[in-house]
Amino acid sequence: MKNITDSFLCLGYWPFAGSFGFNTDILATNPINLSVVLGVLIFFGKGVLSDLLDNRKQRILRTIRNSEELREGAIEQLEKAQARLRKVETEADRFRVNGYSEIEREKQNLINSIYMTLEQLENYKNEAIHFEQQRVINQVRQRVLQQALQGALGTLNSCLNNELHLRTVNANIGIFGAMKEKK
Known about the structure:
Shape: rod-shaped
Mean pLDDT: 82
GO molecular function: proton-transporting ATP synthase activity, rotational mechanism
Subcellular location: Membrane; Plastid, Chloroplast thylakoid membrane
Distance between the termini: 148 Å
Membrane topology: Single-pass membrane protein
Transmembrane segments: 32-53
Largest sheet: none
Structural class: mainly alpha
Protein name: ATP synthase subunit b, chloroplastic
Order of helices and strands: HHH
Helix content: over 70%
Low-confidence stretches: 7-16
Strand content: under 5%
Number of helices: 3
């Protein structure tokens, strides 16, 4: 760097070749100036530019690696979530099928229970009717027997004398006593 600075300082010691002035020829001055500026920039800026580009490259590579890791993690999480979703859907289908079969089973049990209850009620009704029929038949028998006895007693009372009447009553009492003992 000292050589470049010295070369610029040395320009001040050069003798002037004639008059001092501006060169207005654009085609002659611009390419020279540009080549000098570019040469200086390339010479001094090469290291800085190289460092900047290397840093940028490293940041880009780090970002790509981080992105790949995040992508792989996201893919893993997605696969896990999809597996859980499939498992939950399978369980939901199983619960749905089991629920339907359970509902059908409960429905069938309820229908069977209702039929059994109706059958029991029918049996109770038939037993009640049979019991009531037996009670009515017994009442009718008792009335018929009472009426028959009253009619027989009336006929006997009108036809029999006291002695015959007493013997008949005693015989009937003996028959009724024997009937009660059999029951």
